[in-house]
Backbone:
């Protein structure tokens, strides 16, 4: 059976060049980068080279990059680290309703410690209004946290404007860049970010490794403890092979950024146009927003998204109903609800996220198979039968 992978926002395959770069650090180059002997220093050199590669992708300085276990830890370190470092008795955080759970659940946990959290609404395209960010600020506001690109819709937030608002108010600004880095240009200076999180497995690197950009001079406390050097933001023996893989993945992503973005954008647009033409009562969510070039989110009326995921998987197409971490949830996506979709539409939403391996032939196959699968499921839907005019 022909198999097509359209779930690259959930994870990506490891690039062969990345794997080749990593392999020696599982065997002959096994040194601990904290050791002063030759094997240890070889490992340290590899880690520092990867730090430079990641910094180059983000327009940062190497010393501003801290390696983590992934996007979730990076977001936790940014938010909790900033809040724990602030000594004010009352603390306030501003974020949005459509953030990744790594941000939202961290904020909810902080609420249990007495931190006040404002969740800003977004419009029907999934975009927050910078004016709402400004209005939400208080004297006790410690942090603004807004994702760069949404994992379900692909919509790109007005981060530069929000960054200017944060700077004017002298409030730290954290950006979840997990779905933007490697897909669109990311410059921490241009965005005005004080902290920015990325994840290796979203950019054809390995799972279990990520990074957090921390602007020089940002006062942040660690959330993990260990090792002799208490000045580090994230103590512990580095995952050298993973870090090396992340560095190589960042380098490749930077080199391919323009060409791959244009190619994926063309494929995504053709997929959207074809499905809208072939499937009645369908819509693209966030269609009028600036989006990452690889992401398309549809609502197909009269069907359940989970059922379509299973049906398409049986036909050889892997896709999702939204965020991978919320797979299997009974409630509709919080992102779809936040943009104003009623529950029945939100449950019929589907995300197709394309990647480097996808081709024109893949889109051709999808344009044949997806309408057939939707029609088959609709035949089983009482709501659809009621909507069809009697012959």
Residues:
């Amino acid at each position: 059976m022909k198999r097509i992978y359209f779930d690259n926002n959930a994870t990506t395959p490891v690039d062969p060049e990345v794997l080749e770069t990593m392999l020696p650090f599982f065997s002959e180059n096994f040194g601990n980068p904290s050791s002063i002997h030759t094997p240890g220093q070889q490992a340290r050199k590899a880690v520092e080279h990867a730090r430079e590669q990641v910094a180059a992708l983000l327009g940062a300085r190497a010393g501003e990059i801290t390696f983590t276990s992934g996007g979730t830890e990076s977001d936790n370190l940014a938010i909790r680290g900033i809040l724990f470092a602030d000594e004010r008795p009352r603390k306030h955080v501003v974020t949005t309703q459509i953030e990744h759970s790594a941000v939202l659940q961290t904020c909810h946990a902080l609420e249990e410690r007495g931190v006040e959290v404002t969740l800003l609404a977004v419009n029907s395209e999934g975009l927050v209004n910078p004016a709402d960010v400004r209005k939400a600020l208080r004297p006790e506001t410690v942090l603004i946290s807004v994702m760069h690109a949404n994992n379900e819709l692909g919509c790109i937030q007005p981060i530069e404007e929000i960054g200017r608002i944060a700077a004017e108010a002298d409030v730290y600004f954290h950006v979840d860049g997990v779905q933007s880095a490697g897909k669109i240009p990311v410059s921490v200076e241009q965005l005005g970010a004080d902290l920015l999180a990325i994840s290796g497995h979203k950019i054809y690197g390995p799972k279990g490794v990520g990074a957090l950009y921390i602007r020089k001079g940002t006062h942040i406390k660690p959330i993990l403890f260990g090792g002799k050097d208490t000045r580090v933001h994230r103590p512990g023996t580095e995952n050298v092979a993973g870090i090396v893989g992340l560095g190589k993945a960042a380098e490749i992503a930077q080199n391919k950024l323009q060409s791959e973005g244009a190619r994926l954008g063309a494929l995504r647009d053709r997929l959207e146009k074809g499905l809208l033409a072939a499937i009645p009562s369908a819509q693209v969510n966030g269609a009028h927003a600036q989006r990452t070039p690889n992401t398309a989110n549809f609502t197909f009326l009269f069907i359940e998204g989970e059922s379509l995921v299973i049906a398409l998987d049986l036909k050889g197409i892997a896709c999702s109903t939204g965020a991978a971490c919320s797979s299997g949830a009974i409630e509709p996506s919080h992102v779809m609800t936040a943009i104003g979709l009623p529950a029945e539409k939100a449950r019929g939403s589907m995300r197709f996220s394309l990647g480097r391996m996808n081709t024109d032939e893949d889109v051709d196959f999808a344009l044949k198979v997806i309408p057939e699968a939707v029609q088959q499921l609709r035949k089983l839907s009482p709501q659809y039968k009621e909507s069809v005019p009697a012959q």
In short: The two ends are 38 Å apart (CA to CA). The chain has two domains: 4-10+257-387, 16-253. Residues 16-253 form a domain with the Aspartate Aminotransferase; domain 2 fold (CATH 3.40.640.10).
